[in-house]
């Protein structure tokens, strides 16, 4: 029978084998006390199985409080598996199973979901993204290299007119992609409908004149009826992308948006920090993004190399690679496009390219574009040229010799 | 203008005042670099404000990794406020604002959302629970004292027939409330539809004979169309409650279920551990439950005193009290009923009653009922008698003198 596999980093004050069995029990047929009704046959059929348990080390203090007191705590790599029959191919019930009550167990002084191997049934049950990399390239006309993107800033507080001014400058400057801030959905100063209409006038005019339609990810995060209505407005105005904050709407929110949408869904991960910032608790990005891709995320944020946040580069690279891996190896599903952001300039282009081995991504820069001494157009051009150099394997300084926008950028990028 | 207030426990390696401003900026009009477009007028109008910053202490090591290195780290109590205009009364956008990117900031080596004060507009924009305490009492006929409840165990793996056997015993034993396990939604061994039909036959027969309809919280967690259809089946079969796992369906999932539902929604918090288990990260229960109550949760889990999980009693009490507080003081909204569970028996009745000052709750026990030497009926009776003693202020031993079921229970409860 097909099974679901989940890997964890576990720390326990208990005997690791016993702790593993307790976790497997809590997340399947067991409970705190032995029950006559939990027969060996039932357990064999429906219980979670401990597939692997590998001791990594020991410590004398627990990572997290509240667990059972012990003289020493053991860190392990744990893999559990469940029969698919327990949940069926259901994303919400998968979440309750692999990331439910187990984090609260007293046997646990640290627990982190590090990986997920799903059976093909999930790809059959869920649509995945409708556009992904190929669809996004088609809609933007960017056939090679990354989409050069930016974000409207200040995050919140601009009027519609001020927003449009920025968009006008960016569109004229040759940008491929613009996104709303995750805080800007339908604020009183910049209502969604007015913003979309005014921004799309600029985008459409430019597209009619030049043939290039800039993709704008309008943040429609809200209640479901609001999101549907806002999507329809974006579509009607000729827009080509909508954005939603995953943790704020939840799995059902994304599923329903995907079901309704005729545009790519730019998925923002705001709140990700509370799921991941303690290394001994919560979620790695790799298993987390699988759920959202299955539910339909076309673009997923992965932070950026040398970002302004607290995430180290190796974590960013692992996250980005995970987005480019199939959700279920060997089973076809439209590929989600990773989005690199936060403190980005052309200086990260070569390393990013080297780390993920392709340029199927959105690279967004704020100061890296707006700060260019020759203006926004030169900022966009410089970032694009940095990517050409990265892809062709030419050192940045050398490439800059023949490209004045890049040359000027190298003086302020840092 | 009305504002949203959020309190945090913050640890920072930076100057605390500067860290507070960075957090306020990141979650409103600011970004990592100074922008000419972030004018003083814009900041005054749309920026988050640091309302309070109180130093609590210092340490030489950071609680969480990834922050800026420092010789010492400062712990503080921080309160921020935002103009309601930034988000409007929108739960998903409130979440992005008070619990968005801020946890990832390098200025942060610990950050936990501890409180939320919302303007009245949220109560006007969202329905809150439709049934709550009063509606649940009406549907169950339990006019005083707690609902005595239990959960079907093993969590998963029972067939429909085996589930019905347990229900039959419980219903005959006088139970008020039964819930599915959070892992049991529509598994292959115990499909939702069959389970509901078979269980409700037993519940309905008993109700017809005795006038007492046991409330069964059927776990309908799933995709939205599944949840709606399952709700309708429960309703059609005469059921009086549905259950959903909040973290697995998300805010939009609960909102849409609430909009569709004609039955109380029993809200399970599986996954709560990853949001809360690190004391230096994530969410306190008090602000978290406010969002879900606004969205429509009728019953909310708060763990139990001396539970089998890692949560200490003071945290359980604070959580339970928060559920009984108004979401917005002075603004009427149906009251959500707290649910106490995990390792519960009558021994926790008096302390629970003393801690929250009322018995408007569901008290679920597994082993505390099934383990009774005289059977399930005596187990239910004993738990109910323990509550009578608690409410009347009679010592348990004394009350047991006149109540044999309680007397026998005291010999195995521990």
Automatic annotation (TrEMBL), chains A, B:
Record domain Ribulose bisphosphate carboxylase large subunit ferrodoxin-like N-terminal: where: 12-121
Cofactor(s), by name: Mg(2+)
GO biological process: carbon fixation
Domain Ribulose bisphosphate carboxylase large subunit C-terminal: 132-413
InterPro entries noted in UniProt: RuBisCO, RuBisCo_large_chain_AS, RuBisCO_lsu_C, RuBisCO_lsu_C_sf, RuBisCO_lsu_fd_N, RuBisCO_lsu_N_sf
Keywords: Magnesium, Metal-binding
Membrane-crossing residue ranges in chain numbering: none
Pfam family, one: RuBisCO_large
Keyword Metal-binding: yes
Keyword DNA-binding: no
One Gene Ontology molecular-function label: magnesium ion binding
Family of this protein: Belongs to the RuBisCO large chain family.
Protein name (record): Ribulose 1,5-bisphosphate carboxylase
């Amino acid at each position: 029978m097909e099974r679901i596999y989940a890997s964890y980093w576990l720390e326990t004050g208990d005997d690791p084998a016993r702790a593993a069995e307790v976790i497997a029990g809590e997340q399947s047929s067991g409970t705190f006390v032995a029950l006559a009704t939990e027969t060996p046959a039932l357990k064999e059929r429906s219980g979670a199985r401990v597939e692997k348990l590998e001791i990594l080390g020991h410590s004398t203090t627990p990572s997290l409080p509240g667990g059972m007191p012990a003289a020493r705590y053991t860190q392990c790599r744990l893999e559990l598996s469940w029969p698919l029959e327990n949940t069926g191919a259901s994303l919400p019930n998968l979440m309750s199973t692999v990331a439910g009550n187990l984090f609260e167990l007293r046997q646990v002084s640290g627990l982190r979901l590090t990986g997920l191997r799903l059976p093909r049934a999930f790809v059959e049950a869920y649509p995945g993204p409708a556009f992904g990399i190929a669809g996004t390239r088609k809609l933007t006309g960017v056939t090679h290299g990354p989409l050069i993107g930016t974000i409207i800033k200040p995050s919140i507080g601009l009027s519609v007119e001020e927003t449009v001014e920025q968009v006008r400058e960016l569109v004229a400057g040759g940008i491929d992609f613009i996104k709303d801030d995750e805080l800007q959905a339908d604020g009183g100063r910049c209502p969604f409908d007015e913003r979309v209409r005014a921004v799309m006038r600029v985008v459409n005019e430019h597209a009619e004149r030049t043939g290039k339609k800039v993709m704008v990810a309008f943040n429609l995060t809200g209640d479901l009826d609001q999101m549907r209505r806002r999507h329809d407005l974006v579509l009607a105005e000729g827009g080509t992308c909508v954005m939603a904050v995953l943790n704020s709407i939840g799995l059902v929110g994304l599923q329903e948006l995907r079901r309704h949408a005729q545009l790519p869904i730019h998925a923002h991960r705001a709140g990700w920090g509370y799921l991941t910032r303690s290394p001994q608790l919560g979620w790695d990005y790799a298993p987390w993004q699988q759920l959202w891709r299955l539910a339909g995320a076309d673009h997923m944020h992965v932070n950026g190399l040398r970002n302004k946040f607290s995430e180290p580069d190796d974590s960013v690279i692992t996250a980005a690679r995970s987005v480019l891996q199939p959700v279920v190896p060997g089973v076809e599903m439209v590929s989600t496009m990773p989005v690199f952001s936060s403190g980005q300039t052309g200086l990260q282009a070569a390393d990013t390219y080297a780390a993920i081995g392709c340029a199927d991504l959105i690279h967004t820069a704020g100061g890296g574009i707006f700060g260019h001494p020759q203006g926004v157009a030169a900022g966009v051009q410089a970032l694009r040229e940095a990517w050409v150099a990265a892809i062709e394997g030419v050192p940045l300084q050398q490439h800059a010799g023949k490209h004045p926008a890049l040359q000027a950028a190298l003086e302020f990028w840092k």
